[in-house]
Amino acid sequence: MINGAYLLDSERRAVGLRAIVEVCRHRGWILLAAHVRTAHLHVVVNAEIGPERILNALKSYSSRALNLDSLVDRQWARHGSTRYLWTSDQINNAVRYVISKQGEPMAIYAG
Q1: Element housing 107 (H / E)
Q2: How far is CA 44 from CA 69, 71, 81, 82, 106, in A?
Q3: What is the mean pLDDT of the chain?
Q4: What sign results for the dihedral spanned by CA atoms 10, 53, 3, 104?
Q5: pTM
Q6: Computed from CA positions of residues 61, 59, 67, 18, in that sequence, does the dihedral angle turn out positive or negative?
Q7: The three-state (H, E, C) secondary structure of 64-99, written as one string
Q8: Residue 63 has pLDDT above 90, yes or no
Q9: Which of 3, 30, 75, 97 could pair with 101 as two cysteines, CB 3.0-4.6 Å apart?
Q10: Which helix (H) or strand (E) holds 2?
Q11: Could you give the CA distance from residue 106 to residue 38 in angstroms, rounded to a whole number?
Q12: In contact, 34 and 98? CB cutoff 8 Å
């Protein structure tokens, strides 16, 4: 990021969460869990493409929803943590982490 963290208040977290749900529905991905925090988010998605492409789509949709199109390169970290989850235990642990291990619940989706 070029600038400091772009902090999301409760209204912006809700907008970001709606954008995540929308892009997953639009692309036919299965959203298993999402937790939009003040300065970052966690998402678990089941899709037939690599996590890097999912991450880029989530950033794009969220940016449009938050009217950040002109600030995308300045507001998002250049990359993000992306992982492949191969087993049901890995998926369940990731969903549990996203939903209940992030501190105070904020904008949450639990599919």
Answers
A1: strand 107-110
A2: 24, 25, 11, 10, 16
A3: 85
A4: positive
A5: 0.81
A6: positive
A7: HHCCCHHHHHHHCCCCCCCCCCCCHHHHHHHHHHHH
A8: no
A9: 97
A10: none
A11: 8
A12: yes
What is the residue-wise DSSP string for 31-69?
EEEEEE-SS-EEEEEE-SS-HHHHHHHHHHHHHHHTT-G
Do residues 54 and 45 lie in contact, with contact meaning Cβ atoms separated by under 8 Å?
yes
Query: How much of the chain exceeds pLDDT 70, in percent?
Result: 83
If we measure between CA atoms, which residue out of 81, 82, 100 comes closest to residue 92? 100
**d(Cα 109, Cα 69) in Å, to the nearest integer?**
24
Amino acid at position 105, single letter: P
| Structure-token match 């938050």, residue found | 66
CB 111 within 8 A of CB 32: yes
